[in-house]
Structures are given as C-alpha cells and as structure tokens.
Design goal:
4-stranded antiparallel sheet; single chain; N-utilizing Substance Protein B Homolog, Chain A; alpha/beta; Alpha-Beta Plaits
C-alpha cells in the first residue's frame, strides 16, 4: 500500500522538475486540493520532503551517481525523484527509520515505474548511508566541495567569490541558504497594535518572539497560518523582516503620492500604506493582471483604501507620469539569490547568463522611473539578490549618467539590527543568515 503523503510529495516534485512549476505554488495547490484527507503532520512531512529535496538536489544526485550504473539523464523523472526522496529521508531526516524510507520508496517505484524500477530503487537505497554525505567534505577542491556539501551551483559560488567575498564568507552564505526560514508576521497598525495582537496570539496558544523590527513578530510552528481568523480579519500579514525594512527606509509621509512600480504580491505596498496611516495615494504596478490582483486582495483584507492597482510595465516609458511622484519604490526583478531558503528552485532555474538579461530590465526600470520623480523626491532601489552586478553596479552606472541624482545616507536607529550592514553610509547589503534573507537597498534623491 502506497503512503499518500509521500505520493503527494512526489507529484509536487515531478511538477517542479518536468513542468517547471514554482515549488511554493505547486505545493499550495496540491495541499489545498487534498486538505480533506491530510492532517497537519501529513502537510508538515510533504512540505519537508518537497523543500528538502528541492534544496539538496545537487547533493542527492551526487549520491545517486555514486551507486547508479545508469546516468541520471536516462532515469525517468518519477524514479529519479523517488530516489531523491528516499536519500533525503535517510541522510537528513533522523526521525524516519531507513527501513521506512526504503520500503515507501520501493512501493512508489512499483506504481510509477515497473518491476525493474522498484528493484533499482531498492538496490540503491539499501546502500545509502549518512557517511555518503559526510565523505563529500573530504573533497580537496574548494569550489567542488562547497558545491556538493551545500548543494549550490558552481556558478553562484564563483559569482560570490568574484564579488570580493572571501572563501569563508561564501561558504557561510551557501550553508545559510539551506536553513529553514523563520515565519514572520507584521502587525497591521491600521486595525490593531502589537500588544493586542500578542494577547490574541497567546489566547490561541501560538508561540512567538519579538521581531527585529518594531511591527514584527516571529511565529513558531504554525501550520496553515493564513487560515487563522486573525489573518482573515487583517490584523496581520506575513512578511520577512528584510522585505519590511525597505518601506521603512523609503519612509513615505501622510499625503504623499507614491509609486510602487513592481508591487506584487503587495507586502511592501501595504506596509507603505500603513506607514502613511492610509492617507495619500499609492499607485501599485505589475505586468501581470493575476499578480496585481493579489495586491488588491491584500489591501482589502488589511482595510487599506489608498492603493490604486494597475497593469503596467515599468520598462516602458510613459510621458504622463513625469515628475508626478513624491516617492518611488523599485523592488526590481532579480535573480533572487538572497531568498534561496524560501525558494530553493531558483538555484536550478537560474543560469549565469541570466544576469545580463535581468540587468537590462533593472537598469531600464530605474532609468524610466527616475523621470517620474519630483525634484526633492526619493527612490529606494532594492533587490532580494546579493550579486554586485544587480545592485551596486546598477546604482553606480545610473548615477554616472544622471547628475541630477545623488545617493542618500541611510538612517537607522542605533539599536537597529540592520545598521551594521550599511556600507559607506549608503548601500545596505545583507547576506542571508539565521535571522533574515539576503537583500540590497539603496536610496537616491533627485536634487
């Protein structure tokens, strides 16, 4: 009899691999479709396997290669993902007995392969042991060792080394990219305050700790947090604190006219509205209608009325917006190397040559939207990436061509955790660590 939980995890991994679905979207869809037959522990195991296998795919494939006499590209996607799932459980999940991992994998192989497939899976998994992973640390070549022990593509390691980081820093970034992210929530001060929200969470036996930023809490082990009545009533929203810092640095005032040119799904947009006490006007753009709808839905749930959404391409110049806005937020498209622990499939989708194409988009958005800013107005440029080409290089090139703009000093309170990451008083870059994702922020003023 096949374990339904592992079968669902397998189907998600197949969609990610073959149909190039995004891990978080594919996982949410299949869990919602099967919610009536799944308990919380089932959902937890499915999520653990899907994110674990996606995160550690390179390392898992290395171990498969060690024992398989068939090349990876000749193994069917179903059987390959069954092997990855089995090895992930054996190597990384101590609470699951090896016998259970092997037997459940063999059962899956019988359904999704044929007789020889199940024998193949059984033969490989019975040989796998934790020492197979530990032996990878003995590889002498630095790049190969870090790649195989942290499941990081070689090109990303090389890019980080080329950006001026030393080997120890790069290895730490790669390790931190595999750690489970915190779940943080932002209190909606338009409907409640931090004290009231804490009390209501305690009433529901939900554990939390204070966040790094004043409006944030870190939530501990809550399944399906969006089903909570407090979420549905708009008393909080889910947002990483790295993302939350960006609106705080732009710091729009009540009555400002603000543009968020790359707004979906709306976390930063709604936080700006909160900072503005729902007074003023925010125009929220995205190129996809289904994504801009998410911004509108978030605003409605949180009781925000000043956000006006529209489908707009920020890479296309529009004369009617010139010098319209007091402040502009440009959280531009990027490679996303700073959020790998939340979106591990990024590692396998992106290629080094993508930097050139994404750079063109980033520069075009900044060049266009700078023209929409009033004199004396401010732009915050941010990414959830950590590569120099997407961040410092973009800003420096823009300033070299546009002399009516200048970098502003980034002002943070002395006790703010993020203050230590400000370089030369202007660029703020955080490499992913145990507390937050990786990201970059710069603030520009029109003279």
């Amino acid at each position: 009899m096949i374990d339904k939980t592992r079968e669902i995890a397998l189907k998600v991994l197949y969609k990610i691999d073959v149909e190039e679905a995004y891990s978080n979207i594919a996982l949410d869809e299949i869990i919602n479709k099967n919610r009536n037959i799944l308990q919380d522990r089932d959902i937890g195991l499915i999520s653990e396997i899907v994110y674990g296998v996606t995160t550690w795919k390179l390392t898992l494939d290395e171990i498969i290669t060690k024992y398989s006499n068939i090349k990876l590209k000749k193994i069917s996607s179903w059987i390959l993902n069954i092997l990855r799932m089995g090895i992930y459980q054996i190597i990384f999940l101590d609470k699951i007995p090896k016998s259970a991992a092997v037997n459940e994998s063999v059962n899956l192989a019988k359904r999704y392969g044929h007789k020889s497939s199940s024998n193949f899976v059984n033969a490989i998994l019975r040989k796998v042991k934790k020492a197979d992973y530990e032996s990878l640390f003995e590889i002498e070549d630095y790049i190969e060792r870090v790649s195989k022990t942290t499941s990081m593509p070689v090109w990303i390691i090389k890019e980080l080394l080329n950006s001026g980081l030393d080997k120890k820093q790069v290895e730490e970034i790669c390790k931190n990219s595999n750690k489970k992210p915190k779940v943080c929530i932002r209190v909606n001060t338009l409907k409640t305050d931090i004290v009231e929200l804490k009390n209501k969470l305690q009433e529901r036996n939900i554990n939390f700790t204070d966040g790094i930023l004043k409006d944030f809490l870190a939530i501990d082990k809550v399944k399906n947090i969006e089903s909570l009545d407090l979420f549905k009533k708009g008393m909080f929203t889910i947002q990483d604190e790295a993302a939350g810092l960006i609106p705080l640095i732009l710091n729009p005032s009540k009555g400002d006219i603000v543009l968020d040119a790359c707004s979906a799904p709306g976390g930063k947009t709604t936080y700006m509205a909160q900072i503005m006490q729902n007074q003023g006007e925010i125009e929220a753009w995205d190129i996809h209608e289904h994504r801009i709808d998410l911004v509108g839905q978030a605003a409605k749930r949180l009781g925000i009325s000043i956000i006006k959404t529209s489908v707009n391409d920020a890479t296309k110049m529009k004369q009617n917006y010139i010098e319209k806005y007091d402040k502009i937020l440009l959280d531009v498209p990027c490679l996303g190397i700073g959020v790998l622990k939340r979106k591990p499939d990024i590692k396998w989708r992106r290629k080094q040559q993508d930097i050139i194409e994404i750079n063109k988009i980033q520069k075009q958005i900044l060049e266009n939207c700078a023209k929409y800013l009033k004199r004396g107005g401010e732009i915050v440029y941010s990414t959830c990436s950590i590569l120099k080409e997407e961040n410092e290089d973009v800003i420096n090139e823009f300033l070299s061509k546009n002399h009516e703009f200048e970098l502003e000093k980034l002002q943070l309170e002395e006790n703010n955790y993020f203050k230590r990451f400000i370089k030369n008083e202007t660029f703020l870059k955080v490499y992913q660590n145990e507390k937050t994702d990786g990201f970059f922020i710069a603030k520009i003023r029109k003279i």
